[in-house]
Amino acid sequence: MQKFYFDINGWFSTQPIEGRETEIAPPDSSLAEGFAWNFTGYAWQAQELSPKPQELPPAPKAPRRVSVGAFFDRFGVEKWGILADPAPAVQALVKDCSVRAFIDLDRPDLPQALGLLTQAGHVIDAGAIISAPVQAGEMP
Fold this sequence. Notes:
There is one protein chain. The protein is about 30% helix and about 15% strand. The chain is α+β, with helices and mostly antiparallel strands. The protein folds into 2 domains: about 5-50, no CATH class; about 65-140. It has a 3-stranded antiparallel β-sheet, with no helix packed on it. Strands 4-5 form a two-stranded antiparallel ribbon.
């Protein structure tokens, strides 16, 4: 007697699967596209195959936020000179940062703000400060 096989989910299989077999033949081998035979335990039923999952949208970017202290630590030894600088533009930046709960490294105006420090004569690498990965100890 011929045997017909089904997988763990009951779907018809052309490959032998031990313990997942029946002598009951599927009604025929021609099914509409998108359908397949599924064994219910006593009969074969034509069932619609699940549509292919659509591509998921990209996961939202995790916020790149650092504590205010960690942000200033990113300036290295320049940190002390920046904090002590009496220049109005530098003090405005320091005050703006100090009233925040965190610094968002993806904030669009951050490069311009860091440019104020460069204009005031501080040697900083704004690109590295902004793009460096956020470390666990820097999170707010």
